[in-house]
Structures are given as C-alpha cells and as structure tokens.
Specification:
This protein is an alpha/beta fold. Helix content is about 45%, strand content about 15%. It has two domains: about 120 residues, Ribosomal Protein S8, Chain: A, domain 1 (2-Layer Sandwich), CATH 3.30.1370.10; about 190 residues, P-loop containing nucleotide triphosphate hydrolases (Rossmann fold, 3-Layer(aba) Sandwich).
C-alpha cells in the first residue's frame, strides 16, 4: 500500500535535489511504499527506472529505502506519483518491470492527463491484456491497446508502423493465447524471404534452416512468451509451422492463426495470394512498416496496396503505430522521428534525380 504525503513546497529538498536543480522545486511529494521487493523492482537496476521517469517528466526522484521523494512542478510531480503507484501495483503482483513497462506507464499517465481523479487500481486495468500461461502481456501504449482490441474483434488485422512498436510481439502473443486456449489448432508464421539491402546467397540446410534467419524475430517472440518445451514440441508436431510465403500458395488454412511479418516486402500478387488463404475459424495478422520496403526499385509493396484497396472493408481491422509508440530504447523513437522528418526531402531529391535522367 502506498502512502502519499500532501504536496509540501516548504519541505527542505534533499541534497540530490539541490544538486540537480538550480532553483527550489515548486512542489515536493513524498510516497511511502510497504513491500521491499516491489520497491526494488520499481526502482530498477542502479535506479534506471527512476532515471527514466526523471528524464521524461522533468522531475527529480530520490529513493531511500521504501521512501521516495518527487520534486519539480506540480503537474510533473502528480504525473510521476501516478506512474510510480501504477508500477508499484504491477510489481506488487509479482510482475517484472522492464524499461518498456516504465515508458508505457508514463505514456498512459500523460495521455490520461489530470482531467479526473487518478486511481492506480483503475489505471492498471485500463489497457487490454493478453493472458498467457507464462505471463500476462499488457498493452503499454494507446496504440497497442487499440491493436489488441482489433485482434480480439476482427478476423483479419493489419498492424502498421515503425520498428519497435510491438506489432509482431503482440501478434505472436495473441496467437499463443488462442493456441493455449485450444481455440485454434495451429499457429502458422510466415515472412517474405527478402534481404535488407544485402545478398546472403544460398543458405545450407533443410527448409526450416534456410528460412530461420528471416524468421528469427518471430522465434524470439515465441520463446519469450511460451515455455520452450511446448514450443519445441509444437514445432516438431506441426502445430506451430514456420514457412516461407512462397509455400502458402494453394493452401486453405482452417482453425489456425496465420501471421505474416514484414509484409511491406510482399509483392501485390503475394499479398493477394496470402489473404485468400483464410479458412474457417482462422485469424490473420499482417504486420509491416511501409517506410522500410526492401523490394527492387519500382515494384509495388503488397502491404501498401492492400491498405489502400481494403480500406473500409467490413471485418478488417487496421492498427496504425507512430514514432511515439516505439517502446524499445528511448533513442529509437527519436531516430524514427528524425528519419520521418527527412523522408519528404529524400523523396524530393530522388524525384529531381530521376527528372535529370
């Protein structure tokens, strides 16, 4: 149970606050938590979770045992308090806290604003959750929440946006949930075998060994979300199938969840072929980033075309992610934003070069 002292502008700041802030803080909030283990998880290794909260919310957070002091503007202190109470509630339930969880809590509090009284118990259940045997998977941003809701509501869902937004990871999590609940018999994972700007040549081994390098991110998600022994057994028994996109032709996939990753590298014909494989009691999830197309110049991306042609079609859900939804290292979102800002200039220069030719 967290006990929050009232705002105390007159309290003497700690030495850490004096060192980090040039002017006395407008507000100081003191929170006392009960559970030592949960507080340790909340603070993070070497205080990295608190450091992230400081950077993102413009406050100073000082931790001494179970006693945490927040100093800064009134709004910043209020937001930081809500973030800490939300994360403490998760840690107190035995959940490990990653930097992505911290970033997600910060974004949720910022999105929520201070328009109504905050309740940490209510906030914890705000975003959708995918419940797996190994651990629950919670949406960390509003876009992820919308994505999970679309997965639960539609038989075909497109997850579109930059790298690091959780498109593939959440798709695999949802597929694993349906598989564990016996709502589907199989998980089928596929991806176009297109190199990202370099040629790998012919790869040795059987079919699975040849496509493994292309599907490694999906394997990583599977082993992260499911028990390794269950994954291996399902792979050997064909309940989890890894296949290159070219091998989808001619099949009708029933009682299955089919995930197409890196869909921006499909051609128009490949995308049409894939989408028409949908059978009874099946779900399809298509993920990709239209800004990272590795197809030969002049070739139309099947993902971009499908999004245009299928817009507004009943039964199809589309979840769009942006740079603000990146949940990897905080620098990744800045990198994505920088490339997005440069995109119009690159397009203009490319058009000028083609005109000169």
């Amino acid at each position: 149970m967290a006990k929050s002292a009232p705002d105390s502008p007159s309290l003497v700041p700690s030495r850490k606050i004096d060192r980090d802030m040039q002017v006395p803080p407008e507000t100081q909030v003191v929170i006392d938590f009960d559970e030592n283990r949960a507080v340790s998880a909340l603070v993070g290794p070497y205080g990295q979770n608190l450091a992230l909260i400081e950077r993102r919310l413009g406050v100073v957070v000082d931790s001494r045992g179970n006693h945490i002091t927040i100093a800064g503007s009134r709004d910043g202190c209020d937001a930081a308090r809500r973030v800490l109470e939300t994360l403490y509630g998760q840690a107190n339930q035995g959940h490990d806290l990653s930097q992505g969880d911290v970033e997600g809590a910060i974004r949720a509090v910022i999105a929520q604003g201070s328009l109504f009284e905050y309740d940490a118990k209510t906030a914890k259940s705000q975003f959708e959750t995918i419940n797996l045997r190994k651990r629950p998977v919670r949406a960390r941003t509003a876009a992820q929440d919308s994505y999970i809701r679309a997965l639960k509501r539609h038989e075909l869902v497109f997850g579109v946006g930059p790298a690091g937004t959780g498109k593939t990871w959440l798709a695999v999590a949802y597929a694993a949930q349906l598989f564990e609940r016996k709502e589907v018999d199989r998980i089928i994972l596929t991806r176009p075998a297109v190199e990202a700007g370099e040629r790998l040549g012919f790869l040795p081994g059987d079919l699975r060994e040849k496509v493994d390098p292309y599907l490694r991110p999906i394997y990583d998600a599977l082993y992260d979300l499911m028990d390794a022994r269950i994954v291996e057994r399902a792979l050997q028994g064909g309940e989890i199938e890894i296949a290159p996109l070219a091998f989808m032709r001619g099949r009708t996939l029933t009682n299955a969840v089919i995930i197409l990753d890196e869909a921006q590298n499909t051609t128009s014909m490949q995308m049409k072929m894939f989408l028409t494989r949908l059978g009874e009691n099946s779900r399809m999830i298509v993920t990709g980033d239209p800004t990272q197309i590795d197809l030969p110049a002049g070739q139309t991306s099947g993902l971009s075309e499908a999004l245009r042609l299928l817009q507004g079609v009943e039964g199809i859900g589309v979840a769009a992610f942006g740079a603000e939804d990146v949940i990897r290292h905080e620098l990744v979102s800045r990198i994505v934003a920088a490339y997005d800002r440069a995109a119009p200039a690159r397009t203009t220069r490319g058009k000028e070069a083609r005109d000169k030719e």
